[in-house]
Amino acid sequence: MQGNEPRPWGPAATVALSSVEWKEATRFDGTDWGWIIISIGMAIGAGIVFLPVQVGLVGLWVFLLSAVAGYPAMYLFQRLFINTLASSNVCCDYPEVISGYLGKNWGVALGLLYFVMLVIWVFVYSTAITNDSASYLHTFGVTQGLLSDNPFYGLALISLLVLLASRGERFLFKISTLMVLTKLGIVAFLGIAMVKLWDSANIGALDPPAVLVKQSIVTLPFTLTSILFIQTLSPMVISYRAKENSLAVARFKALRAMNIAFGVLFVTVFFYAISFTLALGHDEAEKAFRHNVSALAIAAQFFPPGISTVLGVILNIFAVMTAFFGVYLGFHDACRGLALNLLRRRFEDERINRAWLNYGIQIFIIVLAWGVIRLNVPVLYFTSISSPIFGLVGCLIPAWLVLKIRALEQYRGPGLIVIVLTGFLLCISPFLAFI
């Protein structure tokens, strides 16, 4: 998180620990729990309520093939992303890591890609939380009109969220825990509640191989983003490296947190999507798509009156808030790295005031998000470009570093081929949708 400065790794950082020292150093603590919570919170965004509808549209077999290819690849490239960050001599932000490997110019260029990937989601969640919260307040009679029409409502709301997110790790972990556990519980409950409606007829027939493969590639970005939390990995690794004296311990803890978050997300979200698909089928999904309603609206007919509405409000607000916190951490990391890269070209490092830099970044994020809210830009139309950028930042760039940097050659292997192939498919998937 912000405020973490690069640690000058010396010989002591790589000295092997005894088994007793290692066990003590890697003991599970509140920081580990906090980063697991933040990662899960980032992955389960507001789109979770539309996941069963999207799976129902493409069909069970397409989703299964996409999941079989995508989820293992996602695990591999998130693991590689952590390893490339953890192996850097200096690790204070993503652009700085790239600069350490390839030089300052590459740090700016690839840091901009990382910036663009995250800024899209800052736009999405800033707009979503402003419009959705205003809509709920109006629907339940708290306000007579929509507060989102007031230009200062969005400014106040985003300022409050940025203030909360910038209070520090411990505070953010505390306020996120209840929200993340609640929305994770709702997703699991919905999946289990639909089991009684499973129908084997909803499995559907297999498409021709060419169609199945093409549709699976087109669906790949959607499948991956259903449990993706790469946005939180960079600040997580930076946090561990700032706190731990041993590089091996920092790497181990970051990988462990990623493994646990990935496992929980995979089991919960995958079951949730499959359960709804087996219960509702393609026709119900098409009907929901035409009427632009979520899985909760479909499930409402099977629940007591009012339950679906309450679950929907809680899940939506908590999902958007915790996802915003996760995106904020990564975006602050990207902004800080780019700013430091440019400032160091003109000023000595000691002359750069980190506190004022952090304040400036916070103000920049608030103004940027507020501007998008006021323009009411249909940012969801632009999210398709996040797939190629994500393929580059999450897959191809780490793979390139492993192939180019001698210090990273230990990560070369069959898994790297899978990561490169996945990155390539992510880059071309938006274009296949138009063929």
Automatic annotation (TrEMBL):
The keyword Magnesium does not apply. GO terms for cellular component: plasma membrane. Keywords: Cell inner membrane, Cell membrane, Membrane, Transmembrane, Transmembrane helix, Transport. InterPro entries: Amino_acid_transport_2. One of its GO terms (biological process) is amino acid transmembrane transport. It comes from the Bacteria. The keyword Oxidoreductase does not apply. It comes from Candidatus Methylospira mobilis. Gene3D superfamilies: Amino acid/polyamine transporter I. The chain crosses the membrane at residues 33-52, 58-77, 108-130, 150-166, 178-198, 218-240, 260-282, 302-331, 352-373, 379-403, 415-434. It is a multi-pass membrane protein. This is HAAAP family serine/threonine permease. It is found in: Cell inner membrane.
